[in-house]
Design a protein that fits this description.
It contains 10 helices and no strands. The protein is mostly helical and 185 residues long. It has 2 domains: 45 residues, Arc Repressor Mutant, subunit A (Orthogonal Bundle); 134 residues, Tetracycline Repressor, domain 2 (Orthogonal Bundle). The protein is elongated. The chain starts with a helix and ends with a helix. This is AcrR family transcriptional regulator.
Length: 185
Amino acid sequence: MTPAGRRIVAAAEELFYNRGITAVGVDLIAEHSGVTKRTLYNQFGSKDHLVAAYLTGRDQRWRSLVRAAVDASDTPAEAVTAPFEALRTWSGTNTRGCAFINALAELPDPSHPAYRIAANQKLWLLDLFRELAVTAGCSHPATLATQLLVLHEGAVAMQPLSLDSLPESTALARALVRAGTSPRH
């Protein structure tokens, strides 16, 4: 990506996340990034593709943070809840909730390129929870993965309300993992 393209994505990210995707037009993005609308369209072709680029960048950073948290885990059982630890770090600078949930709410058309990116981010996290649960030897890993995703996304959704539900969500996630890995008698 060109330097102008990077400036456009950075401006779009700030504006889309803080003001909403549908509330922000390309004129404002061009102004904030210091480029012309023509440059913006030459780089991305459309606002839809710019939204997709914005979400793709966030998704790559989020996945990297989660993978680092998983890799830093001492045990397979601890790794299952690593995305909650990653969320603790991520939430320090992302206080308007989840950009992907926000995008899904604003862009309900499944054929929109940004919709697919947002939906795939949630499906990736669900698959990761399942894979980690399998590795940890949890019983019913698919069910546990769904429960953990609901807890995780609930904690994210509460962020804009300044209700820090992450500690309780993390504790409950750990309890679910312990229950799923405890030996059967």
